[in-house]
Amino acid sequence: GAPLAGQTITFTDVNGWPLCHATTNSKGKAVCNTAPGLLDSVSVLLLGYQATYAGNQNYLPSSAHGYTALL
User: Cβ distance 50 to 14 under 8 Å?
Assistant: First the structure.
């Protein structure tokens, strides 16, 4: 389907602790720019994160698990 702009995505660690909220751009992409604490960072590096869209009256909720990329 078409990308959804202006939608809030919630990023959490695998234990459900919030990392950040981000808004999707015109391509439907949201980026979490956060500086978590050391323990959160290690957890996210090893186990990944969850990105969740709560949905609205027109679109169902959705979530996905992802991993960070080390440059």
Answer: yes
pTM of the model: 0.83
* Mean pLDDT calculated for residue range 28-33: 90
Residue 24 has pLDDT above 90, yes or no: yes
Contact 50, 11 (CB under 8 A): yes
Residue type, 25: N
pLDDT of residue 47: 86
Estimate to the nearest angstrom the gap between the alpha carbon of 25 and the chain centroid.
Answer: 13
At 8, list the tokens. Answer: 């809030």
- Location of structure tokens 């679109």: 59
Nearest CA to 10 out of 39, 51, 59 is that of 51
